[in-house]
Amino acid sequence: IAGITQAPTSQILAAGRRMTLRCTQDMRHNAMYWYRQDLGLGLRLIHYSNTAGTTGKGEVPDGYSVSRANTDDFPLTLASAVPSQTSVYFCASGAVSGANVLTFGAGSRLTVL
Amino acid sequence: GQNIDQPTEMTATEGAIVQINCTYQTSGFNGLFWYQQHAGEAPTFLSYNVLDGLEEKGRFSSFLSRSKGYSYLLLKELQMKDSASYLCAVRDSNYQLIWGAGTKLIIKP
Q1: Which residues of A touch B48 (CB under 8 A)?
Q2: pLDDT digits 0-9 by tens, A13-57
Q3: B43, B98, B101: residue with CB nearest A104
Q4: What is d(CA A53, CA A90) in angstroms, rounded to the nearest whole number?
Q5: How are strands ordered across the β-sheet holding A64-66?
């Protein structure tokens, strides 16, 4: 693993189904983030975690949940997917201190039908 | 509310210079970032400004004026591989990043 790994790369999902997007980093960054990116809009923060064991809500948290059991993993769960959650999801991590430059995963393209 | 404005799309010619502007209104300021995002890929970090002035890094430079709520990214000697979206982001008083919608830069030969 080098940087951040997201899985799956792409997924088509029926509305109402549960889905977990996985994110793993190997840079020992304290902070991790989940964003969604939709055409014509900026990246929007869903949830974040400044350190293992803590999480916080971002700009668009409804319908999503996260956990941070350890430093490396930060899964995002859609409990009951809806079509408006069709988007590209990016996981990112940063060192918190200093400039906190973010490193992004390759993204997970999710389509909810 | 918090707002980041940047042009939706710009076109430039290979070998030329292009300036992408970003204006912001945020609750507090703790730094401004520029990221590059090629189509279908993840954003990658380009530059960071926290003090007024120009930061130069090879063919790319970024300028910040905090009093004007304004930044620009300057790309020199444009290459075809510079065709991408350029994202401006500001870190607010809560240390959260506020993102612009991005500027799609099209480079023509």
Answers
A1: 99, 101
A2: 999 999 999 999 999 999 999 999 998 888 999 999 999 999 999
A3: B43
A4: 21
A5: A4-7, A19-25, A76-78, A64-66
Q: Where are the alpha helices (DSSP H) in chain A?
A: none
Contact assignment for A42 to B31 by CB distance below 8 Å: no
Per residue in B9-29, pLDDT tens? 999 999 999 999 999 999 999
- CB-CB under 8 Å, A45 with B42: no
Structure tokens at A14: 């029926």
State both tokens at B35: 């990221």
Pairing of strands B103-108, B9-13: parallel
DSSP run (H or E) holding A24: strand A19-25
Concatenated DSSP letters for A59-72?
SS-TTEEE--SSSS
